[in-house]
Specification:
By secondary structure, the chain is mostly helical. It folds into three domains: 97 residues, Serine Threonine Protein Phosphatase 5, Tetratricopeptide repeat; 94 residues; 55 residues, no CATH class. The protein contains twelve helices and no strands. The longest helix is centred in the first third of the chain and has 33 residues.
């Protein structure tokens, strides 16, 4: 009996030590992200998942970083492979916690990336998933900045589809979905209010204003954008693109 109690105590102690290790790894991963060392952050989240495959935070973050890093690959097949892996992480995160706005956002983000490497019906499916999961994330958390951005991107992407892509979307959606340039602008604006440091929301908002013939507003947004600190590994490139766009407008 004595040894049985000791065994139970040892198991409980081991569980809490392991939980503390997971928390420490996640904090280290978050620090690596803040330091813009995204590859190291991703490795740390994957280390967490080796011990705790059901950790929803590590899962959705692994999805986000896998997609982001993969998007920088020059080869389209490598990008698609990375997006597939990112979707697997996102699906696992959602299976673990259906009420997680972050998990639904991760699904929307991987769908958005998939839409860039697919065509026809597959692209239409990605656009459908992009909206559905962004909507779900916003039902859970109406101020989820990245989900708001994804919804703005969905509106912008639908508006800019070519004739063949629109035909595929009409078939899958049962008609052309109600996407507008005003809808894109509204959601991009909400995204930057929810997270004033979300650089990509400024860039795509400026592009939407340009397309909507609101050059003055585009210039205002870009002037704010170029002063923002980089928060992701892509932000310096986004800022450089913003500077070039700003120069072309002035």
């Amino acid at each position: 009996m004595k040894y049985g109690i000791l065994s139970v105590v040892a198991l409980i102690f081991g569980y809490f030590v392991c939980a503390q290790d997971v928390d420490a790894f996640i904090k280290e991963a978050e620090k690596s992200e803040r330091d813009l060392n995204e590859a190291d952050a991703l490795n740390k989240y994957k280390e967490v998942l080796k011990a705790h495959p059901a950790n929803s935070i590590a899962l959705w973050k692994a999805s986000e970083l896998t997609g982001r890093i993969g998007n920088r690959q020059k080869d389209e097949k490598q990008r698609e492979a990375a997006f597939t892996e990112a979707r697997q992480f996102a699906e696992a995160a959602l299976n673990e916690n259906r009420n997680s706005a972050d998990a639904s956002y991760a699904m929307a983000a991987t769908a958005a990336r998939m839409s860039t490497v697919t065509s026809g019906k597959n692209k239409a499916r990605s656009l459908r998933d992009m909206k559905n999961y962004a909507d779900t994330a916003l039902q859970i958390n109406p101020r989820h900045a990245r989900a708001l951005y994804i919804l703005g991107k969905w509106n912008f992407d639908i508006v800019n589809l070519n004739a063949g892509e629109k035909a595929a979307v009409k078939v899958l959606f049962g008609g052309m979905p109600k996407a507008t340039l005003d809808g894109a602008i509204e959601n991009f604006e909400k995204a930057r209010v929810a997270d004033p440091l979300l650089v990509i929301s400024y860039l795509d908002l400026a592009k939407a204003y340009v397309k909507n013939h609101q050059t003055d507003k585009a210039i205002e947004v870009l002037n704010r954008m170029i002063k923002l600190p980089p928060k992701t590994g892509d932000d310096q490139e986004y800022k450089a693109e913003g500077k070039a766009l700003l120069a072309s407008l002035q």
